[in-house]
Structures are given as structure tokens and as C-alpha cells.
Specification:
Chain lengths: 238, 238
DNA sequence: GCTCTAATTATGCAAGCGTATAAATACACG
DNA sequence: CGTGTATTTATACGCTTGCATAATTAGAGC
């Protein structure tokens, strides 16, 4: 006993025929992939879409096309499209965090060098990138309407700021300055704003600034705010 | 001679009946409005939609509903929906600019007071508002994909920054400090970033900051960057 | 008051969206 | 080398969207 086939199958003439010999009605050939690989591919495809046409351009069909799968598969891995978008957002944020942390790892020991490296990493490639901004902006625009997103943003923001506050505290101490929580909190808010503001402009209109100008401007402004030098020993380690 | 009516008219039962006596088939009563008034109303309705549900929530039907008008009328005043959205964006940006300029007008004569007032205005109500951010973010997310929008942003950014640079220059001179273009440019970039970054956070999560904390933080950071005081005479004018 | 027209409504339409689900198939395991 | 099943495709559905256009009407000008 078999069920009704709703309509005779019409192969899409725009799709390239598979390399293998073609039966009269062909079907897209495929490979089964591990769950992790597929999720990563789908997220990567999503980011490509957002990069090219903004969040609105990230439709399930377009994403599937980029990932070289059919649209239905997305729902096999993500309950709803929003879950995929959310995963993509988290992936980008996580990637930026990791990239900044990497810069810290390869920095010198002096806390001032570390803060310097952290700021430069956030204000240079690949973190300061229009693609990152597009995704970020799309989400930020939803924060006001979606409480879950507001929470996600808050957590990310406070996490970043706390990391910054720790760096600032150590840099201040290394310079022989007091580092009371009341002051480091305010410093962290200000330094975070400097980094965010410059990152924003660099992503939006990087071409109107000289190479490295934003990073240098950021370092100088932060030095002024903290009243310390972030370049304690010129030509030190390397 | 009359043309074919495509389908018998079925009045929408959800719409309230007009106050006037009802014929068997009623039609929404309306008033003709001046072109300017209608455009303003439509823009205001658009901003309401964006405020409540983000840019995606600003559909022609929803906008028309808020403006108490039918959807078709939007096309009578705006060639395409994007034109309305663009007009709404420009309206918001313009409003913020005007509000900041107003703060300048009612400020004291000393350039440092003026810069102080300008910063405080940008980091307080009604400029630092989640609704403004939602519209802004929606547009910013499109900058990468749409060259026309990129240009609009650039103009707005540079205009704001130039105004800031002039204020900074005068404040420096008033404090007896040199104000070379090479330095004021960089100062303007940094101060702009501080304002943008703090504005962003205030819009996104204003509730995690104390009243006036962001404005004070911004003033302090800017004073540090410029190495001048923005409060030259405590309790001066008022 | 009458008339004319610009403003407004009512309605339709095609395209695209996210989602649901049955059919097909790759491939791990015996 | 079969067989079972998890993965993937194909297809449809219902809804919403922006846009188009014919019918209607408010209100100004005569």
C-alpha cells in the first residue's frame, strides 16, 4: 500500500545535472556528513549571506543554496530559522572573543603590553570587519523587541567589560597606580566605549582612515583615560 | 457604462463601523490632509512600528494601520517602501542632531561649557533612547550591502564629527592649549567614539547604569583625552 | 450648489517567506 | 552483500509581503 504522490516530479531545469549518468528524472546527489560538520557549514553559509546582503538576505533557501544542500535540511539541524541565526550570532561573537584572547596569549608579560595588544587586536583585522558588523547590527536592532536577545547582549557585554576591567586593573597596578574597583569600573566602561566606537567606525568606513590610525587613536585615548603609558619599554621583547 | 466589480465587497467585520449611519456596505471615512502632514504622520507611524517590533515589524500594512490610513496611500506619498524607511531614518538622525544643537544654544558662552552640554545631551534623554537605536541599527546593518546607505552614513558621521571637532578646537583654545588640525582631528575621532560607544550602551542596557553615570563617565573620559577641564567655573552661570 | 480632480480606499496579485512532511537514498552494520 | 535507519531531497502549504490599480469620495474653486 502506498500513498498518493501529490504531483509528478518535475526536476528543476536550472540545477546542474549530476556528474553521474542521468536517469530520466534526476535527484540531487548528496553525501551524509557528521552533525558537527553540517552545523558548521550551515552557520558559515548563513554568515556569507549576511555578509553579502544583510540579515534580510539570509533566507533559508539562500543559506541552503550556499551550503549546497536543500532548504529542508536546515530544519533537520535547527528547530527554526531563528535558532540558526542565533547560532550564527553566537559563533561570530565567540570567534571575535577568541581572536582577541589569542592576541593576549602571544603578548608580552607586562600587563600594559597585554592591554595594548588586546586593544590593537579589537581594532584591527580580522575583528574590525564589515561582515561582523552586519550580523551584530542585525541583532542589536532586535534587542529592544526581544527580551531573550537583550539578555544575550547583556551577558556578552558584561563578559567583555569584565575581561577589560581585569586587564585595566593589572595595567594600573603595573604602573604603580591605585586600582580601586570604584575607579576600574568606570574606566572599564569608558575604555569599552572607546573600543566599541572605534570598532564601529572602522567597520563602517574603514577606508577613510589611515592604516592603523584607529588602533593608534584608541591606544592614545585609553592611555589618557587611565593616565598610564601602554608602551612601557620601547623595543622590549621582540 | 461601468466596469466589472471583481468581487462583491465584504466589509471587514473587525473594523469599527463609522459613526455616521451605515449603508449596507460601508467604506472607511477619511479626511484629506496636507501633503506635509501626511508624510509626517506616516513617518511617525513608521517610527512607532520600528520602536515596537524592530525594522522587520515596519510593514506597509502595520504602518498604515498606525497612521489610520490604508496601505495603498503609502505608495501615493512614497514611490517605494524603502523611501519611507529612508525618510524615517533621516528624520530620526535629524531630530537627534537638532536636539543636540538645542542643548548648545541654551549653554553658557564658554566653549568648555558648550562641549560639556553637547556631550551630556547626546548621552541623556531623549537622544539616548532604545527606539533611536533600533532604527539606527537596522540601517547600519544595510550599509555594507547598500552603497547609497553607506554614503548616507558617511555624510552623517563626518558631519557630526566636524561639528565635534569645531567644539573641541574652541574648548582647547579657551583652555589655553594648542589646537592644531592634526591633533583636533584625532581628538574628534576619539571623542566621537566615546560618545558613540556610551550612547550605544545606554540605549541597549540603560538600566544597568546609574542615572547620569554614562554622561559623567563620558565627560571624565573626554576631559582626560583633551587634558582640559570641561567645568571651568563651578556654579557659574546659573 | 456643481463640478472637477486629487486624495484615499478597496481589492487583487505574484513572489517569497518559513515550515511541514513524504519519498528517496547513502552508508554503517550485520 | 543485504538491510535498516538516519540523513537528505522534493514538494507542497499557508501566510505575509510589497506593489498595482480600479473605484470612490472629500473638498476646493467656481
Amino acid at each position: 500500500m502506498h500513498r498518493l504522490r501529490r504531483r509528478p516530479y518535475l526536476p528543476d531545469p536550472t540545477r546542474l545535472a549530476p556528474m553521474t549518468e542521468s536517469r530520466s528524472t534526476t535527484r540531487k546527489s548528496f553525501r551524509r556528513e557528521g552533525e558537527d560538520k553540517r552545523r558548521e557549514d550551515l552557520i558559515a553559509a548563513t554568515l556569507e549571506c549576511v555578509a553579502e546582503r544583510g540579515l534580510a538576505g539570509a533566507t533559508v533557501r539562500e543559506i541552503a543554496l550556499r551550503a549546497d544542500v536543500t532548504a529542508g535540511l536546515i530544519r533537520y539541524y535547527f528547530p527554526a530559522k531563528d535558532d540558526l541565526i542565533g547560532a550564527a550570532y553566537r559563533a561570530v561573537m565567540n570567534r571575535m572573543t577568541v581572536q582577541a584572547s589569542d592576541a593576549l596569549k602571544s603578548a608580552a608579560d607586562d600587563p600594559r603590553d597585554r592591554l595594548n595588544a588586546f586593544v590593537k587586536a579589537n581594532l584591527g583585522q580580522p575583528i574590525m570587519d564589515p561582515n561582523n558588523l552586519s550580523l551584530w547590527a542585525g541583532f542589536i536592532g532586535m534587542v529592544h523587541a526581544d527580551p531573550a536577545m537583550a539578555l544575550a547582549h547583556r551577558d556578552g557585554y558584561l563578559g567583555f567589560r569584565d575581561e577589560l576591567e581585569a586587564l585595566i586593573r593589572e595595567a594600573l597596578l603595573a604602573a604603580g597606580k591605585p586600582a580601586e574597583p570604584i575607579h576600574t569600573r568606570r574606566h572599564a566602561i569608558a575604555v569599552n566605549a572607546i573600543i566599541d566606537g572605534l570598532w564601529l567606525e572602522g567597520c563602517l568606513a574603514g577606508d577613510i582612515f589611515a592604516e592603523g590610525e584607529l588602533a593608534e587613536t584608541g591606544i592614545a585615548a585609553i592611555e589618557a583615560v587611565l593616565a598610564i603609558s601602554l608602551n612601557p619599554e620601547k623595543g622590549g621583547a621582540i
